Amino acid sequence: MKRLGLILLIFTFLQQISQAGEIVIEGIFQGKNIYVMNPFASSGVGFCVFEVTVNGKVSTDEINSSAFEIDLSVYQFNIGDKVTIVIKHKDNCVPKVLNPEVLKPKSTFNVTSIEVTKDGFLKWTTTNESGKLPFIVEQYRWNKWIKVDEVEGKGTAGTNSYSVKVFPHSGNNKFRVKQVDYTKKPRMSQDVLFKSLQPPVTITNKKFENEITFSAETMYEIYDYYGNRILKGIGSKVDISGLKKGDYFINYDNTMDQFKKK
User: Fold this and answer.
1) Which candidate, 29, 44, 20, places its Cα nearest to that of 80?
2) pTM above 0.85, yes or no
3) Deepest in the core among 17, 63, 208, 260, taking most CB within 10 A?
């Protein structure tokens, strides 16, 4: 009878494993460990989690408790290394990872140099990146910061260099780069100033029927009377034949203006 009971217990355990699920956490090592709440299995025998692997290696952490820590320090990761944790659990119970955000990339970069070159490239150099996050390139234009480009960060702690083509307007320009991580708080570089000697761009036709033409190529935005942006781009002309008759606002070069579509 005891032997039969043991066989049934082993069968039940194997059945639970065969029906098991898993939680996969992927991210970047930031120097912190993972904590897991571990409920009892639905059968009442043992705890929910039965195996944890880190980058394919079975963890030696003690997981037979209501809460346990996945110690990442034993794997000798460097800050910024990729980490994949697989938490295997029995059926009809789900463990809870308490701090998955510690594996999400965090913005830690320092800008050591930033400039706009004469041929119109914004170049910057960073150190101390700890995870791949995009750099958002912004220009102060028309009384606001606007996004003009995006570059994927390299995410390594050493020296990293970046370069993007920008389109300065006439006169004084201001650029910056920023990252936004899981905290939603932007981390920004210092502003870089650049003075363009190109002449101011003007609108060369005033009919505003089918097309707006500029004296030179420029970045532009067109808004309707209610403040909805309906057109944007870079060019020396804008097709407005599809716009309804009425009043519109237009931003171009470093100018904010308005016009009436006829």
Assistant:
1) 29
2) no
3) 63
Q: Measured in whole angstroms, how far is the alpha carbon of residue 214 from the centre of its chain?
A: 35
Separation of alpha carbons 198 and 216, rounded Å: 10
Q: Are residues 183 and 233 in the same domain?
A: no
Q: What is the pLDDT along the chain (262 residues), one digit of tens a residue?
A: 445 444 444 444 444 444 479 999 999 888 899 999 999 998 888 999 999 999 999 999 999 999 999 999 999 998 878 899 999 999 889 999 999 999 998 899 999 999 999 889 999 999 999 888 999 999 999 999 999 999 999 988 899 999 999 999 999 999 999 999 988 999 999 999 999 999 999 999 888 989 999 999 999 999 999 999 999 999 999 999 999 999 999 999 999 999 999 8
- Record the tokens describing residue 50, joined without a space: 């039965």
Cα of 143 vs its chain's centroid, Å: 25
Are residue 182 and residue 220 in the same domain, yes or no? no
CB atoms within 10 A of CB 98: 13
Number of H helices, E strands in the chain: 1, 19
The answer to whether residue 98 sits within a structural domain is yes
Q: Are 133 and 90 in contact (CB under 8 A)?
A: no
Same domain, 215 and 192: no
169 and 93, same structural domain?
no
Measure CA 219 to chain center.
25
Based on the fold, state whether residues 84 and 115 are members of the same structural domain. no
CATH, residue 171: 2.60.40.10
